[in-house]
Hints:
Largest sheet: 5 strands, mixed
Strand order of the largest sheet: 1-3-4-5-2
CATH superfamily: Sulfate adenylyltransferase
Distance between the termini: 23 Å
CATH topology: Sulfate adenylyltransferase
Amino acid sequence: MNDKVVQFWNEFCLTNNKIGNEYKDAFQFGASADWLASLVVEGKKVATTSGYLFYELENESLPKVGEYNIVLDGQEEPVAVIQTQSVDIVPMNEVTEEFTLAEGEGDYRFWWEAHESFFTKLLKEYKMEFSPDMLVVCERFENVYSKQ
C-alpha cells in the first residue's frame, strides 16, 4: 500500500487515539476523483451509492457500519478518513431525493443521470444491462479526519 496512505492513517490514529484500528480500503470516488474528494473534505458529500451487484462480481464485502476508509484524490493522495454510519440496499429507483442530496453533487436529476451513466458503463464490462430497479448500496459516512 502507498506509504502516504499508511502515514495518513497513522496520523489519524495518533491524533484521535485510535491506535490498533484498521481501515478497510483506500479509494477514489467515481469518475471525478478530485472534485468528489474535495466535496468530502468540505463536508458537502456525506453519502455515496454503489451497485450491489459489483460487490458480488468483484468478490468484495459490503460496507459495514463503523468501518473506516481513506478517500484519495485524483493523484492517489489521501485527503480524508471516513467512517461508515449506515448502509441500506434498495432498488435504484427507490433512492430518496434526500439521500441523493447528501451525496453533495447536485440535484436528484443530476444524481440519477450520473449514476445511470456510470453503472451502464460498468455493467457493459460484464455484458450486462442497466435496469432502473437494480439494487444499489446507499452508504452514509462521516468525515472523521482530513488535512485542510
